[in-house]
Design goal:
CATH superfamily of the largest domain: TolB, C-terminal domain
Number of domains: 2
Shape: globular
Helix content: under 10%
Strand content: over 45%
Radius of gyration: 19 Å
Strand order of the largest sheet: 5-2-1-34
Number of helices: 1
Structural class: mainly beta
Number of strands: 40
CATH architecture of the largest domain: 6 Propeller
CATH class of the largest domain: Mainly Beta
Length: 360
């Protein structure tokens, strides 16, 4: 029997760079062409935001926000059909954006952005109802996109990946959520309708998964957040109203490391906060003009604790914003282990396995 090898904290810290300040909240303000940062200091998220980027930094109708695994921030500009990147250097983001991709790369009014577990970037093209993929090859993100077209896509807005690598897309015009399944290392080019207006959807925008693989959807014109529960190894397509208090055209959604949900109200420029159970915790902060999408800066690496219990390994971790991944070799091929929560038990048998935690 081959020994089971583990990717320990020392290697993890190399693969997931330390960012400071940890868990800062970033908000895209489409009306003022700014990105605002609410810093996390002393264990508290500051309610007074600071503009870190503006039109002088390359912003023009910013919507989607996404951090890559190195802490670089990508911003989708709907009016200029560009994606701008603000690079991370030793924990500090640059204040001048660089154009990563534009219309020549296939962008047409990009809204939502999302990275998959292997570092590929996806953008929802609102104006021509397509999804653009920018592949990560050899650790480098390619600015030449490839277009994913599907007849069911209709003014797509938000994007989100589940722990199995399936891509979910919010179609704002048809009040649907579309699913593109991931199988055998390949994302399907044809989607299937996961949920529609009968499940509570009304102009869906932002999408987000929590640590339990439950899906949350912001209904911009319905002024609600709809939850699709994960149970029995599958996501239920019958939605329930998770929250409605304080909502005024909600757009972006983001969870912090404690499970609290933050919601950007596009019309009244408020950022609302809800508990993991859906209880309204009040207005967190006032943002700029017409806030759209939200993103938390990737957190500090979290230890993957390992204990031997008989012929089993028991892996535990505390930060729910990390997914457990495994691979047959240490050099690559890591994929999410679907539906895993801490603690996770793995039998010591068969071929070697490597484990790591990856920010979701």
């Amino acid at each position: 029997m081959k020994p089971v090898k583990l990717l320990l904290l020392m290697a993890l810290a190399v693969m997931l760079p330390i960012l400071a300040p940890a868990q800062s909240l970033f908000v895209a303000n489409a009306g003022s062409n700014t990105v605002e940062q609410f810093t996390y200091t002393g264990g508290v998220l500051n309610t007074n935001g600071a503009v870190i980027a503006s039109s002088n930094s390359g912003l023009n109708g910013p919507y989607g926000l996404a951090f890559d695994s190195s802490g670089n921030l990508y911003v989708a500009n709907v009016f200029s059909s560009t994606i701008v990147v603000f690079t991370n250097s030793s924990g500090t983001l640059s204040t001048t954006g660089m154009v990563f991709a534009g219309s020549s790369s296939g962008l047409n009014g990009p809204f939502g952005l999302a990275f998959d577990s292997t570092g590929n970037l996806y953008a929802a093209n609102y104006l021509n109802s397509t999804i653009e993929k920018f592949p990560c090859i050899g650790g480098i993100l390619n600015s030449n996109g490839t277009t994913l077209t599907d007849s069911s896509l209709s003014y797509p807005t938000g994007l989100a990946f589940d722990s199995s690598g399936d891509l979910y897309v919010a179609n704002s015009a048809t009040f649907t959520i579309e699913k593109f399944a991931y199988s055998g290392g390949v994302l399907a080019s044809n989607g299937t309708i996961f949920a529609g207006s009968s499940s509570g959807l009304n102009t869906p925008y932002g999408l987000v998964f929590d640590g339990g693989n439950n899906l949350y959807v912001a209904n911009t014109y319905g002024n609600t957040i709809v939850k699709y529960a994960y149970s029995g190894g599958m996501l239920n397509s019958n939605g329930t109203i998770f929250a409605s208090s304080g909502l005024n055209n909600p757009a972006g959604l983001a969870f912090d490391s404690t499970g609290s949900l933050y919601v950007a109200n596009n019309y009244n420029a408020m950022i609302e906060k809800f508990s993991s159970a859906g209880n309204y915790l009040g207005q967190f902060a006032v943002s700029g003009s017409r806030p759209t999408f939200l993103a938390f800066q990737p957190p500090f690496p979290t230890p993957l604790n390992i204990q031997l219990a008989g012929m089993n390994l028991v892996l535990t971790w505390t930060n729910r914003l990390f997914n457990l991944q495994s691979a047959p070799t240490i050099i690559g091929g890591f994929t999410n282990i679907p539906g895993t929560t801490s603690p996770y038990t793995n039998a010591i048998a068969g071929s070697q396995q490597f484990f790591r935690l990856q920010a979701n």
